[in-house]
Amino acid sequence: MTEQVELKPLRHRDIRRCVEIEKVLFPGDSPWSAAAFRAELDSGAYYVGAFTMSGLVGYAGLAVVGRPGEYEASLHTIGVDPRHQGNGIGTLLLEAILDRADELRAPVFLEVRTDNAVALALYEKYGFSKLGVRRRYYQPSGADAYTMGRPPVAVAGEAAR
């Protein structure tokens, strides 16, 4: 990693920058709006931002449903400004999200474009496997998505299930 990155909770003041990054990352589909990010933060979902000296350069969000012992988590979004990609920031964000899911002993699910080889390799490296295909999931492009899942991971010192 070439620049210092600090992970911090995402705040409402960061939404405008998230929307800017979304528009660059997902121009052929429906990038998330400020209202979508606001709703996620207001719902209590776990969101983390990657900050450098130049400000917010990436973000990731995890929604959790269920009750203790029966939690299920969903990676709702992860994005890194293209000018900062390839520096390990996406990996840091994913690790932060997975750490939170592991604290809750929750399986994690996500959708990813079938043509996003970089993301697929990253998710597979972290224990995700393909569960199915959602045809025409991304709109308006109509791109397909894989549904992927990762089982709950035992916390250090705890026997695996």
Automatic annotation (TrEMBL):
Q: What Gene Ontology terms describe what this protein does at the molecular function level? A: N-acetyltransferase activity
Q: Does the keyword RNA-binding apply?
A: no
Q: Decide whether keyword Cytoplasm is in the record.
A: yes
Q: Report the PROSITE patterns cross-referenced here.
A: GNAT
Signal sequence extent:
none
Q: What domain of life does the UniProt record list for this protein's source?
A: Bacteria
Q: Which Gene3D superfamilies match?
A: 3.40.630.30
In this chain the N-acetyltransferase domain maps to 5-153
**Pfam families with a match to the protein in the record:** Acetyltransf_1
Q: Which family does it belong to?
A: Belongs to the acetyltransferase family. RimI subfamily.
What name does the UniProt record give this protein?
Ribosomal-protein-alanine N-acetyltransferase
The species this protein belongs to is Amycolatopsis suaedae
